[in-house]
Amino acid sequence: MINNDVFLRACRGEQVERVPVWYMRQAGRYDPDYRKIKEKYTLLEICKQPELAAEVSLMPVHKLGVDAAILYSDIMNPVASIGIDFDIVKDIGPVIHNPVRNAGDVDRLKPIDVERDLSHVLETIKILDRELKVPLITFAGAPFTLASYIIEGRPTKSYIRTKTLMYSEPKIWHSLMGKLADMAATYLRAHIQSGAKAVQLFDSWVGSLAPHDFKEFVLPHVESIFASLSDLDTPKIYFPGVSSGELLPHLTDLQVNVIGLDWRVPLTEGRRRIGGKFAIQGNLDPYVLTAPSDVIHEHARRLLDEGMKEPGFIFNLGHGLFPEASLEKLRDLTEYVHAYSEERIAA
Ligand code: CP3
C-alpha cells in the first residue's frame, strides 16, 4: 500500500507539501549491489526473474529515499514479442539481429502478446505493487526511439538509416510507427492493469528531428498512444529526450499529465512552450552530479526556485543517470530537494 503519493499529486498539478524526486535510470550501475547482481546475470536474465527484477527496482527507493520507483526493464523488452531478435550488449547497448529496413520487414512484425511473451514483466509489477510504499512508474519506448534501434541495428549518432527510411519511404515509415505505437499502448495498458501507478513514454532520441519533421512523421503516433490510454486516469508522462526544446510547442494537444524537460531548456521557458497545461519533470544536467555537494545544491536550489513558481513540478534529471554517479551524492541531493522545498512551501 502506498503511503507517499506526493509524486502522483505533483503529476496532477495538485497541492504538495514538498517537491517529489526520482531519477531516470535510478536502478543501475552506480550502485555496487546492482553491479554484483550484474556479475551473475544479464539485464534480460534479471527481467525474466520477477523476484530479482523487483528487488533491483526497490534498491534505489530504499537507498536514495526517492518518491517513486521505476520498473527494472528496458525499452527494448517488448519488441521481442513483435518478432525482433536483440541482445543488450555490454558497452554498446541494444543490438538487433534482424533489423527492420523494408516493407517486407515491417509486414512481418506481429502484434504484441503481453500475456504470452511478457508475463514476467506483469508479475514483477504485481510484486512491486504489493511491496512498495511509493508509486511505481513503468514505461515504454516511444516509436521513434525504438525505430532508431530496430532500423539501425545498434545505437547510432547520425540516425542515417532511420532518416533515410523516414524521408524516402513515408508509407513504410508510418506503417512501422503505427505498429510500434500499438505495441506501446497495449503494453502500457497491461502494466496499469497489473498495478503501475504512472507510465512514462521514453522518446530519448526524437530531439534529433527538425520540429516540422517531428510533427509530420512522429507526433501523430505519440498522440495515438496517449489517446488510446485516455480512458485510464493513471498519470502519463512524455519524455521527449535530449535536445527536445524546439519540439515542446508541438506537444500541447498530448493527453498526458507531465512533460519531461532536458537541461537545455529553462523550466519557465519550457512551461511557456507547452502552454502551461502540464506538470513538468526535470531537468538537472546529470553531470552536475560530478561536482562537490555545495555546487550540486546550488544547481538544485536554482531549479527548485524556478520549478516551484507553479504547481506541478517533479524534480528529476534532464536525462538518465550515468554509471559513475555516486550513491552518496544522490542520496544527499534527494534530502536537499525535500528539505529545501518543504521549508519554502511551509513558509
Ligand atoms: O530507469 C531505470 O532505472 C529503469 C531501468 C531502465 C533501463 N533502461 C535499464 C538498463 C530504463 C528506464 C531504461 C530505458 C532505456 N533503455 C532508454 C530510455 C532512457 C534513456 O536513457 O534515454 C533507452 C534509450 C534504452 C536503450 C538502452 N538500454 C541503451 C542505449 C543501453 C546501453 C547504454 C547504457 O546505458 O548502458 C541500454 C542498457 C541498459 N538498460 C542498462 C540498464 C541498467 C545498462 C546495462 C546493464 O546494466 O545491463
Automatic annotation (TrEMBL):
Residues 20-29 form the Uroporphyrinogen decarboxylase (URO-D) domain. Transmembrane segments: none annotated. GO terms for biological process: protoporphyrinogen IX biosynthetic process. GO terms for molecular function: uroporphyrinogen decarboxylase activity. Its main location: cytoplasm. Pathway: Porphyrin-containing compound metabolism; protoporphyrin-IX biosynthesis; coproporphyrinogen-III from 5-aminolevulinate: step 4/4. It catalyses: uroporphyrinogen III + 4 H(+) = coproporphyrinogen III + 4 CO2. CDD domains: URO-D. The keyword Ribonucleoprotein does not apply. Belongs to the uroporphyrinogen decarboxylase family. Catalyzes the decarboxylation of four acetate groups of uroporphyrinogen-III to yield coproporphyrinogen-III. Homodimer. This is Uroporphyrinogen decarboxylase. The gene is hemE.
